[in-house]
């Protein structure tokens, strides 16, 4: 009995144990506070402002809530368990581990703050963040007040979750309010099938030839469409951002609020108006305007919690990195291939064998394939809708449909880079033209072409003007003709001949026009007017960079842009030349075994040159002894003195091993061969 501890001793041990657990709870709150600032807040902030991310991946409420729980809880639990495990080695190791974790988290926070408030990037920013982490760890160890502040801030993750669920633009996607508006009423007995194809990021000027018409040589299927429909040449989108532009097109109203493109915010839209009379086959991309009561959304591979977690992990790497990300969030919306979607559609081969539809089936967007498969006659009037992210960046297709790889960090600004971006855009537009051709072919083969109202347009354009690239206000002010004016073709049932209508069309006119042609009366007031009505008398237009803030834009049908000049060396044979130095090339492996039938070609060549090569020096890229492209050497950037060249014509390649040579073009026209390292 004497060896057993007494009551007082047991009480002291009980008090020590309670104090130990209280200390652990305090440490966990401190970790939760820092992880909330480093992970939870930045992730939920970006995701909360990006409802289109969840709409694109067709995430439901359960999946979004699980993702939020993982973001808010999992890091704290993981770090907390690490701390508890260190306690098995004794209180000294436990305290030291906690101090180390605090220092690392303070350093991670300093990286994000420094990237926002200072010009530091890369290693210098990491060094400064390391110092901040050391100071933070010392302060936490030295003064109890620092720990008390962190423990109070431990409620931060709960606040961030609450803001995401109830106050962010994504909130209505998680907690929808309502299930769509009222259906329209029939005003006649003839309700034709409606086929509406909305392309993305396509300026009208990209399609124009020197004569101001559609360039039939480069884009024969767009020219074919124009020759059989009414081309509204003076048509403009109302916003450069799809989550504002597309709802305006499908509601007939100008953007008024920064709402998510979701049916709970836009209950009155094309799908709800037509849903009472029409069957709806809708393939939306980054909107969810068709409510579940009207549309059945098919399950796609690029959805589910696993996809959300993977994409959020990539976002975390971006927001915590010491470098700025060059990736536009919209660029992450990648169209799935037919192979990824598990689609085994044996499409008939078009007359043009170069398209190789069957052999390139792996490379066609699966969403487009699903749309084509649905273009069949039906006993009830049917609305076929597709919003296809083509020719929207990221640019990855050649006109033939072959894919190519490109580094994600390529800039789109500055001499040389702007020209490359436009060349890649035009190449992908060439592939989009082939998709248009497939649509026309399918409509004719199924008999829908004569019966249907067919509309092909784009939500907005994009500027490739130097110093004003993109779709923001700078681009609108400097190059509104590239951003606002979009191709718009309307083929009415039974229409045989094409015509041009230069009325002042704005994309709020789209829904009223479709409703008029389908003999449906809209049960709400719209800002647009039907093309069956008299044209607007006022010449002015408006564009919305922000909802409820219209920017007046002037001008009419844009003039064609100058065609990119083809260097006289392109297409000429080259032989060995005098040495001119060395060059480092990326992606060389692709030249060793080219298989054109795989749908993949090494069509983008990039690399770095020695610093002594002057800015603007021309570089000739030869494939199999023939010059395929001539590009300038651009000014140095943090990645070095770089160049990049697109070989848009896949006839330069052959099956098997291909030879790649690079030459410096001298002012007099001579060539000096570079040694590839």
Automatic annotation (TrEMBL):
Gene3D superfamilies: Alkaline Phosphatase, subunit A (3.40.720.10). The chain crosses the membrane at residues 64-85, 120-137, 149-167. Residues 320-341 are annotated as: Disordered. Residues 370-516 form the Sulfatase N-terminal domain. Residues 325-339 have a biased composition (Basic and acidic residues). Keywords: Membrane, Transmembrane, Transmembrane helix. It holds the Pfam family Sulfatase. The keyword Transmembrane helix applies. This is Sulfatase-like hydrolase/transferase. It comes from Micromonospora fiedleri.
């Amino acid at each position: 009995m004497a060896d057993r501890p007494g009551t007082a001793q047991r009480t002291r041990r009980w008090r020590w144990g309670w104090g130990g657990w209280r200390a652990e709870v305090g440490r966990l709150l401190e970790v939760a506070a820092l992880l909330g600032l480093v992970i939870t807040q930045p992730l939920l902030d970006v995701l909360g402002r990006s409802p289109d991310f969840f709409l694109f991946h067709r995430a439901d409420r359960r999946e979004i809530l699980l993702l939020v729980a993982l973001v808010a809880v999992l890091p704290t639990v993981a770090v907390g368990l690490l701390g508890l495990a260190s306690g098995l080695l004794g209180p000294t190791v436990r305290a030291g581990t906690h101090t180390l974790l605090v220092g690392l988290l303070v350093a991670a926070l300093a990286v994000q703050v420094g990237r926002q408030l200072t010009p530091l990037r890369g290693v210098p920013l990491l060094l400064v963040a390391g110092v901040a982490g050391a100071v933070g760890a010392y302060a936490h160890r030295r003064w109890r007040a620092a720990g008390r502040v962190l423990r109070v801030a431990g409620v931060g993750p709960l606040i961030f979750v609450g803001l995401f669920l109830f106050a962010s633009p994504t909130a209505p996607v998680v907690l929808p309010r309502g299930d769509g508006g009222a259906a329209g009423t029939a005003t006649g007995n003839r309700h034709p099938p409606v086929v509406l194809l909305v392309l993305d990021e396509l300026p009208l000027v990209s399609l124009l030839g020197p004569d101001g018409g559609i360039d039939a040589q480069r884009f024969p299927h767009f020219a074919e469409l124009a020759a059989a429909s009414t081309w509204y040449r003076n048509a403009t989108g109302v916003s450069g951002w799809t989550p504002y532009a597309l709802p305006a097109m499908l509601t007939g109203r100008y953007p008024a609020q920064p709402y998510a493109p979701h049916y709970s915010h836009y209950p009155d839209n094309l799908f709800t108006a037509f849903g009472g009379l029409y069957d709806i086959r809708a393939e939306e991309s980054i909107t969810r305007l068709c409510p579940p009561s009207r549309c059945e959304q098919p399950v796609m591979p690029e959805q589910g919690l696993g996809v959300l977690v993977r994409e959020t992990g990539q976002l975390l790497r971006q927001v915590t990195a010491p470098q700025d990300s060059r990736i536009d969030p919209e660029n992450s919306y990648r169209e799935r291939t037919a192979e990824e979607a598990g689609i085994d559609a044996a499409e008939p081969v078009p007359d043009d064998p170069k398209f190789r539809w069957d052999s390139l089936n792996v490379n066609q967007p699966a969403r487009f394939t699903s749309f084509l498969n649905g273009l069949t006659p039906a006993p009830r009037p049917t609305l076929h809708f597709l919003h296809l992210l083509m020719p929207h960046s990221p640019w990855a297709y050649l006109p033939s449909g072959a894919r190519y790889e490109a580094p994600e960090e390529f800039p789109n600004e500055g001499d040389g880079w702007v020209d490359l971006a436009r060349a890649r855009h035009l190449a992908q537009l060439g592939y989009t033209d082939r998709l248009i051709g497939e649509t026309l072919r399918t409509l004719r083969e199924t008999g829908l072409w004569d019966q249907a109202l067919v509309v092909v347009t784009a939500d907005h354009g994009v500027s490739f003007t130097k110093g004003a690239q993109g779709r923001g206000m700078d681009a609108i002010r400097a190059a509104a003709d590239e951003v606002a004016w979009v191709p718009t073709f309307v083929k009415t049932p039974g229409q045989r001949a094409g015509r041009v209508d230069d009325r002042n069309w704005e994309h709020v006119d789209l829904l009223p026009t479709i409703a008029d042609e389908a003999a449906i009366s809209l049960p709400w007031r719209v800002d647009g007017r039907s093309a069956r009505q008299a044209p607007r008398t006022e010449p002015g237009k408006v564009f919305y960079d922000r909802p409820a803030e219209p920017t007046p834009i002037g001008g009419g049908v844009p003039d064609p842009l100058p065609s990119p000049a083809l260097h006289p060396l392109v297409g000429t044979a080259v032989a060995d030349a005098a040495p001119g130095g060395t060059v480092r090339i990326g992606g060389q492996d692709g030249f060793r075994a080219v298989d054109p039938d795989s749908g993949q070609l090494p069509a983008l060549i990039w690399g770095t040159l020695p610093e002594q090569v002057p800015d603007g020096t021309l570089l000739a890229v030869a494939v199999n002894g023939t010059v395929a492209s001539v590009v300038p050497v651009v000014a140095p950037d943090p990645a070095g003195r770089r160049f990049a060249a697109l070989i848009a014509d896949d006839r330069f390649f052959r099956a098997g091993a291909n030879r790649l040579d690079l030459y410096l073009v001298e002012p007099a026209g001579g060539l000096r061969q570079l040694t590839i390292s």
